[in-house]
Amino acid sequence: MMQNKRFYLRNSRIFFINTPATHNALKIFVSRLFHETNGFAPGRLEMSDFQYRHGQDLFRATGDGSILGELIRLASENNWTLVPSFDLSTSPGSMVSDEVVETAMRHLDEDLPKALEAGLDGIFLILHGAMVADSFDDVEGHLLARVAHHLQGRSVPVAAVLDLHANVSPAMAVHTNILVAYRCNPHTDAVEAGLRTVNLLVDSIRDGNKFCTHLLEAPVILPPTGTASASEPMRGLLAIARCHECAELPAISVCPGFALADTPFTGLTFQLVAADSVDGREAANKASAELLAYATLHAGQGFPEEWSLDDAMADAKERAEFPTLIVEPADNIGGGSPGDATWVLEKFIEHDIRGAGVILAVPEAVAILQTHPVGAEVEITVGGKYPALSGPALTLNAKILRHGDGTFVVEDKHSHMVSMCGTRIEMGASTLVESNGITILLTTHPTAPMDLGQWRCMGVNPEAFHWIAIKAAVAHRQAYDRITKRSYTVSTPGPCTSDLISLPYKKIRRPIFPFDPLPSPSPNTKTP
Ligand SMILES: [Zn+2]
Predict the structure, then answer these.
(1) Dist. CA 479 → ligand 1 center (Å)
(2) What is the pLDDT of residues 385-395, one digit of tens each?
(3) Contact criterion met (CB below 8 Å) for 162 and 179
(4) Is 422 helix (H, G, I), strand (E, B) or coil?
(5) In whole angstroms, what separates CA 237 from the centre of its chain?
(6) Distance from the CA of 308 to the center of ligand 1, in angstroms?
(7) Which residues of the chain have pLDDT under 70?
(8) pLDDT tens digits for 134-173?
(9) On the CB side of 396, how many CA atoms lie within 13 Å of its CA?
(10) Whole-angstrom distance, CA of residue 206 vs CA of residue 211
(11) Of 427, 351, 341, 344, the residue nearest 389 (C-alpha)
(12) How far is the CA of 511 from the centre of ligand 1 (A)?
């Protein structure tokens, strides 16, 4: 008998099992639309800021460690046919031009009807889930509604995998049979989540099981610093989700959302993928009640206290436990910030700190430095583009230590960086300088501090630093926790501030915490 390979996942490793074939080789339509939009960050992203691929070009992701790359490998091993349409992806950043969304829609309108006509078994989309464009508050909901329009009632299941920070809209849930998000923050499980989603899609095709995704909105917006999966309220919510998963309810996702987006869909939601049956709906209702009660009781724990920069510096100096991280979530590059805030560097200089490492994205300064040889001392200005948001312009006397093209291969193949961008990262032309006894890596492109290869490609051993400035909220922990003795999360102004109340929201749903009080827990609510 012909055998088809099926797989399962354990501890992020994939194991294959042989099962009898019940279906001809599967045909799956695939596309990727991946961007997290920070609506409070300055600037606008155009088509040229995106990696743009179409058709067979999507197969260039083969072997790059991303969800798409792993799907291609799996398809080849299982003799599935992938029908590729478009790939538009880029790192988190500011608001997106409509042209990007219109390009995705144009390809969908051309490619999906043809694929359906030729015969299709399923649709799989790799999405972030928090993309916002000039005229589209809900880019992914718009995309999925268009998919549904083309299906015209055909029973071709639609599956999509989301980043944990997706702001999930009703349109996204209603037009997707299987909507699944990552479970870990830092996102070490992105590929695993992608493959889990594909597995459910394939099950649904082969076994004829029909699933639908129920959406549950909680009246809560959490700052990015409150969304770590090891901390409350995420830890408890994820545990409840795991407890309720069963055959009728095979996937429950907890998306704390991405707070730095002003949309009606911003905030904490749950996605419950259930069998389209009475049992499925009952299981989803039961899990929903428990998730909502826990979210309401524990939402306050998702607002971790932040240090003032002065207090953090004073405490860290007294304790002298090095390396010490000064983590600045307001300039969180992984949350779409420009990565050029000078608040921490200014404080290091003021405190005459030695043995510190700082990374800044300052293309103008890099362009000047690259015209000088290693060893030269050059006066440069960094920061100060938006002084109220990113700190003052600092004029530095910088001694050039090294020039580089800013390309590095990610050391940790499980890092979110790999699942998002592949293993090869490009910071653009970069120069390492020393100024005021501080080692400063100046890059052309903002590059989230998710991998130590960022330092090592410039000949720097980050373990040797006493102090390291980090522009992130949570995502750096996978790379830096193992080399760090102490860490201070500090409060500074910036487009990724954790002080949500200070942001000029206009479109968020109300009532919602922390802008409105949390609803009182029902008398029957139990704390797990
Ligand atoms: Zn995320």
Answers:
(1) 16
(2) 888 889 999 99
(3) yes
(4) coil
(5) 19
(6) 25
(7) 1-24, 521-528
(8) 999 999 999 999 999 999 989 999 999 999 999 999 999 9
(9) 31
(10) 13
(11) 341
(12) 24
